[in-house]
């Protein structure tokens, strides 16, 4: 059992997690970062869930409808078969824009026979603080809490409402539905109307997937990962979330539990780069607007992360009444890391701005604002690149001169020069070129450790760090450069554990991690591939893919021993790195086929 055997559904406004037996165990309404309506994943006793229960003789299977975010759970006992099609509506409105209401539809599809099921409908509003009371009304079931905050949620269904609330057994003889949502409906739903919503949502996803190129290798995995990244994007502001959950621990029973329902500049920018490479221009355009909106003053430093509605203050509190995932406390809401200084975010953001201008320069909105941001970033990096920081892994203790942060400061200047060339701003190029050279030489001098034959985690350190592998993809060093090859080999020797990678091995504020950070393993596989160890890279990639859950989804971490998924879920980082690896492998195969046909 993987224990994170959940599927995600969503509509770019919020999301829900449904277990492989059809139990809805995480959902926040009306938006991703609202308080939870169902949170059994964080407390099996009081968290709240919406379960579809069947007799012991039933077998249960689960899959996604191909090329969509519609999750299908199949319940069968001989001839008695029905399916639950779970989705959050998202489709084009006739007058433009999208319909994305804060609601979940559970469409019950009768397949054959007379299957029976019962429901456990147990919403616990406001992260299960206080008491949630449920009342059966004429047209709907309403659940409300009046504790510290007043909140309500509404359930509509084609089944007998009293039978639903009381958990009595019901028979499926035709299609039916459950719809729970944040708002009371003005027009009452019906099975026919919700079938139409299901079909419209399916068409939306088919059209969206159709914009993504087909790949010769790993196409299904690339598509599922791309859909997952899309589900973690928040349409209203352009923000991209790191994950859909809070406080799923990196290690069971320990305290590395964080709220990931925010927009980290680093994670989001990496997602946007990958998505625009897959041809999804709109998500990139919205994200750049999100960034422009965040930087009103030219000298305002970027925070490392923001709320999805551009909030700058993300106060962290613990919900003491929740027992946590598998007893892992505390459950945190908010994230104190927003106050940290991490110098790499400027390079990562500058890389995205450059990519967008290089791809769509004739077509880009906000060119002037982006040039303004570019100049601002160069000014900040020029003044601060020599300072120590917290680094990509957010060490909460002392600041250091992290190699990754320095490399990304170099990236910021390198991409700014390229942007200046695209926009014909030659005056800046000369001055910026001197700064680019100064940072590059500084890294080669201070980050290289002769004894280790590798670039190390921070200046003067002997510790290795997986993030240093990104020197090559960001263009700082060539894959065949002996220094880079040496770094990849040293990282393999020191940080690999049965093919899974530690981020680093030096003790941090919480001791040595016992789980592997999934993105690091993908980075390592990519590096192996780039230095020419292609067969080995492919074998390790296939092995890593086998550790996903039953639907091909990844969380943040994988336990070294048991290979179970850990950490927040699904994790944008893991899926963007999966896509990068898979696309590189697929491109290589395409290039080889072209060479073969030329030889023939």
Automatic annotation (TrEMBL):
Record's protein name: GH15 family glucan-1,4-alpha-glucosidase
Database matches in InterPro entries: 6-hairpin_glycosidase_sf, 6hp_glycosidase-like_sf, GH15-like, Trehalase-like_N
GO MF annotations, alphabetized: hydrolase activity, hydrolyzing O-glycosyl compounds
Organism lineage: Bacteria, Pseudomonadati, Bacteroidota, Flavobacteriia, Flavobacteriales
Boundaries of every GH15-like domain copy: 217-582
Gene Ontology biological process terms from the UniProt entry: carbohydrate metabolic process
Domain Trehalase-like N-terminal: 8-136
